[in-house]
Design brief:
alpha+beta; Immunoglobulin-like; Cytochrome Bc1 Complex, Chain D, domain 2; 3 domains; 5-stranded mixed sheet; 42% helix; 19% strand
Length: 359
């Protein structure tokens, strides 16, 4: 690999021996092994589960290519290193200096040019993948995503409905227009390979196309406070007919909510889940299992006696619109302060009525 200017009498070989028939054979075997290892690493990628979105499949292809190239380079470097250690190691009785060496211009050219070409190839391939997975289409389903401590809210502008779960039809691209109501969050669906920062000062776009029916967890991947670990939801990929039925059900639920006077408890339960209260509080009737805030079962029996001189209705309403005035012992003041602005008077009244029915 380089030439020596004088022989090393005490060494096991001279520099010319670095290119003898044995070294050439070893180099050939290392090259073959590196190619095989790279192909196997790229095809049988052990680090990824099956991607559940078309964008995820493209990202997996890129990742597998990078893994294959990395495995090939790693095998070549470590193979030649191990061979050099074994063959050219200093002998126990050799106390002489090593021979003076000088560089090999041709070798230096190749080990500079080849990595440069690999980096350029990876850059072009990565750009093409990024352009493909972030290309809007005419038939996109638009969903506006709002992140707040510590819940996700999804708004479908075409149907004028809000939910705490993201539903998308199988095979149709959804365009998520994401914004935070308070601080920096991160929208991450591991099975979709999509992770985007969600910030209060700008709208972040993400594109997802479900490739397999099922429910996949949505995780906040940016530390956003004490409730960060429970800031979760799910994206549900449905067949076209099931998705249309779900939309119709949500529109019907909204219509029923408009006539809240006929069943304020049902409307209150709907709002409790829709507004993300279920993310932090446990409540059996609403099938909520949150643990960041106090459990709300038995609220009716506690509310009237918690604050002296205050009625149950006043206590629950104040706890919603001014949550930091009453901090239950053992819990942190992490409840959002803007429910008084986000909720109408009728919605607040419905939630208060619902909670006071929890015996």
């Amino acid at each position: 690999m380089s030439q020596q200017t004088s022989p090393n009498a005490g060494g096991p070989s001279t520099a010319s021996g670095a290119f003898d028939s044995t070294s050439k054979l070893v180099a050939l075997l290392i090259g073959i092994a590196a190619i095989v290892v790279g192909i196997l690493a790229g095809i049988f990628n052990p680090f990824l589960s099956h991607a559940a979105s078309t964008q995820g499949a493209q990202i997996d292809t890129l990742f597998s290519l990078l893994l294959g190239i990395s495995a090939t380079i790693f095998t070549i470097v470590q193979g030649f290193l191990l061979y050099a250690i074994i063959r050219f190691a200093r002998q126990p009785d050799d106390e002489s200096d090593g021979p003076p060496m000088r560089g090999n211009a041709r070798l230096e050219f190749f080990w500079t040019a080849i990595p440069a070409l690999i980096v350029v190839f990876i850059a072009i391939f990565s750009y093409r993948v990024l352009a493909d997975i972030e290309r809007p289409t005419a038939g996109d389903l638009t969903v506006e995503v709002t992140a707040r401590q510590y819940a996700w809210e999804f708004y479908y502008p075409d149907q004028d409905i809000k939910t705490t779960e993201l539903h998308i039809p199988l095979g149709r691209q959804a365009r998520l227009k994401m914004r935070s109501a308070d601080m920096v969050h991160a929208f991450w669906v591991p099975e979709f390979r999509i992770k985007k920062d969600v910030m209060p000062d700008r709208v972040t776009d993400a594109f997802i196309t479900g490739a397999a029916v099922g429910a996949y967890p949505i995780v906040c991947a940016e530390l956003c406070g004490a409730g960060h670990a429970i800031m979760r939801s799910q994206v549900v990929v449905q067949g076209d007919a099931e998705f249309k039925n779900w939309l119709a059900g949500q529109v019907g639920a909204k219509t029923r909510g408009a006539t809240a006077a006929t069943d304020p408890a049902a409307y209150g339960r709907q709002l409790f889940n829709q507004l993300g209260c279920n993310a932090c509080h446990a409540l059996t009737d609403a099938q909520a299992v949150g643990a960041l805030g106090p459990k709300l079962d038995g609220m009716a029996s506690r509310a009237a006696t918690t604050v002296s001189g205050q009625s149950a209705e006043e206590y629950v309403k104040t706890a919603i619109v001014k949550p930091n005035e009453f901090i239950v012992k053992g819990y942190q003041p992490v409840m959002p302060q803007d429910y008084g602005q986000r909720m109408s008077a009728a919605e607040i009244e419905a939630v208060v009525t619902y909670l006071l029915l929890q015996k």
